Amino acid sequence: MTILVTGSAGHLGEALMIRLRAAGEAALGLDIKPSRFTDRVGSIADRDFVRRCMAGVRAVLHTATLHKPHVATHAAQDFLDTNVTGTLALLEEAAAAGVGAFVFTSTTSAFGAALTPAPGEPAAWITETVAPVPRNIYGVTKVAAESLCELAFRRQRLPVIVLRTSRFFPEADDEAAVRDAYETANVQANEMLHRRVDLADVVEAHLLAAGKAAAIGFGRYIVSATTPFSPDDLGPLRRDAAAVVRRLFPDCEALYAARGWRLVPQIDRVYVNDRARAALDWRPRCDFRHVLDSLRAGTDFRSPLARAVGSKGYHAASFGQAPYPVG
């Protein structure tokens, strides 16, 4: 029996294919773009194509999506076609084929406006209980697809796990002000405190979710690096985040200074992975302590898998000095 990976030409899809094939698993890569890990080229919105790909599949790892960087280059209908219609086709065909587990890669961007507290308010403590307030078509379609996943479990008893992943892409930030103020590695190291996860840890969460889906039935979990912060830190994080980090990690200042790095002055949200760790027995290896230990050792804090997959970008075209046509 085969594990079907959608989006096999993307960051996560390729990483899953690498991991599965290294373990000797039968894995079928599906993507609209050819790649060395894409076995079937076609659209997930093509119901006949999806049905043919589902033969002999025991689990689906659905990573294919239009992302936030596509908002400026793709129509709303494109997002609906891929993120909603494509997910519906996969869910229904998986249920019809008797697939035993379906894992849907969602995003913490689904929380949208709930991530940004009002001025003067403490940082937001983001758990699965926070209601999404999508602020663009990307968030709207991912939330809609999550609802389809839950419906597929309730109506067709297809075991589905939704993983709301935080940032794991290696590309530079999509905001020009952030790119101008910090080098990319500095930005991503800071994000490991509250809103980033290493690609290898995301892969592990997906594989664990596939193994536990039948027992769980339906679940929705945040997949982000384990934060060192507690709810008591939320007020101080909006006022002076660097002071909070220096208190928790006294060695940070010297290690950062040696690289010419800086901490951010404020943090507005903290993603909490407690439920994913408990329900999936997931133990993410990369956190901010790992970042500092890597700086001390003079090594890259990214996992070997993240470095092997590398940067893929989101568009065939370039946009001046920016990696995306926004910010």
UniProtKB/TrEMBL annotation:
Residues 3-172 form the NAD-dependent epimerase/dehydratase domain. Pfam families: Epimerase. It comes from the Bacteria. Keywords: Isomerase. GO terms for molecular function: UDP-glucose 4-epimerase activity. Its EC number is 5.1.3.2. It is an enzyme of class 5 (isomerase). Signal peptide: none annotated. The keyword Isomerase applies. Gene3D superfamilies: NAD(P)-binding Rossmann-like Domain. PANTHER family: BIFUNCTIONAL POLYMYXIN RESISTANCE PROTEIN ARNA (PTHR43245), BLL0593 PROTEIN (PTHR43245:SF54). This is UDP-glucose 4-epimerase. It comes from Labrys monachus.
